[in-house]
Structures
1.
Amino acid sequence: MAAQWITFCGVDEITAGEREVFDTDYGSILLMNVDGTFYAVENMCSHAEYELVDGEMSRYKIECPKHGAWFDVRSGEALSPPADRPLKIYAVQVDGNDVQVMLDIPE
């Protein structure tokens, strides 16, 4: 596997407070804009394998809409039960006008 920066969207396509799911060959990734900074996490709750995209957001936290577990989108840390495992997080960078996420791509 080789880590590669993959362009997901332009910086103006996801405004502050918004989010979007990108279904890739490497999983479903939730990309969020929190006050102008982008974060990417696996779009699946670590507790019950339920999509996070429709969960409530509160600054750097997102709630699983299924059972109410909260996660920190910066670290993936599970902040409340019933989740006890972190989310997978992805490095994000802005390159010019592009928002890029680092993915492990098979060689």
2.
Amino acid sequence: MAGQVMVQIKWVANPFRGDKFAEAWTPAAEAVLNYGATWWAFLRAADGRLDFNQFALFDDKLDFDRYWYSEEIAEARALASGLFQVPVLPTYHEIAGLGALAPADALS
């Protein structure tokens, strides 16, 4: 956990384009795994349905930079342009605590 960085990207879809944005960006959000992320999530607000949060956990911020500035993701942003509002600014979080429950069958 020490040294890891959680990256958050807040997206706001343009009105009437939330479904198209979700469809277009989900593969790009998942692509963080190809750049060293160990975990990812792409969340859509239940109310309003235009607010999205993308999260990824990296061992090193440089791995996120390789993802964000890669040709693959730059192209994905270009293809999705018009579906979301700009600017899009990643924020970085130091992990102060993290946990999960293990499924009961994993304990045996």
3.
Amino acid sequence: MHRVVVRSDVTAAVGTGETLRTAATVVVPEPSERAARPVVYFGFPGGGYSRGYYDLHPPGHPGYSQAEHHVGRGDVFVACDHLGVGESDVPEVPLDFEAVGRANAATARDVLRRLAAGELDPEGAPIEAAAAVGLGQSFGGFVLTIGQAIDPCFDAVGMLGWSGIETMPPWPEDVDLEAMFTGTAGDGLDHPMRAVFHHDAEVEELVVLDMTRSGGMGSRAGWGADHAPGGPAVSGARGPLGPGVVAVEAAAIAVPVLVLCGEIDVVADPWSEPTAYRGSHDVTVAVFGQMAHMHNFAPTRADAWARIHSWAHGAADD
């Protein structure tokens, strides 16, 4: 498979007058292994995570790359950094989450254009997508919901550990939130959110890597990020937690929706989620055992990826 980093100019989409670019890694199969018209997935990570979350390669632990899973089946995977995250530009001019969502849509359109023009194939062959599928994990689902409602560019969207009704981590009753966010409430296996983010069945070494944050928002590992989507310049009181924060936008989504959760997650009642997406004619719910909020570390991650694959190809044929 072939990887190429794409930088997309999203200045016009953001609309603040500041010149801004996003970064994404496009992973394509070798021409002989590619579907005639592949599904193109766009993965947007959660708060404290960069695009590396979708292409995990922890030393000594193969089989953690969601991108490689999908590309190995003939499709294309695009792992995206939100503005303010990873290698994307960090805005300095105030912006809102609508602007972050528009930037992600502009990134997707730019990548699809480059694929169709043959710019991202090692042999210069054009790649026409059967469908463009947006995947938003956690905070990334918040931004994806807003973006798809105001600037729809995906043929289907997958909400991974994100609720269209109310996303609320099951905080331990005795946790000091201020201390947690400043890194003084515990780290590694003692991090207050470890039990929500990682299932007990996971490889402990990887749990320690992900939850050792040393007072920062994300891990110091290659998939961590210092900022939430949009970065510190995001203004306004709107955030991803609480009831009904995306009620209007979720109801406006008119494409197939997949709600995928772990048995331990931040979605209180997965089976109620279809009621949030009343504009969609096709809402699928899948819940996986031995999986907590950070799905791609779970023992059952490949089962979840396989479900995403079958759902996405069904949506492409819809």
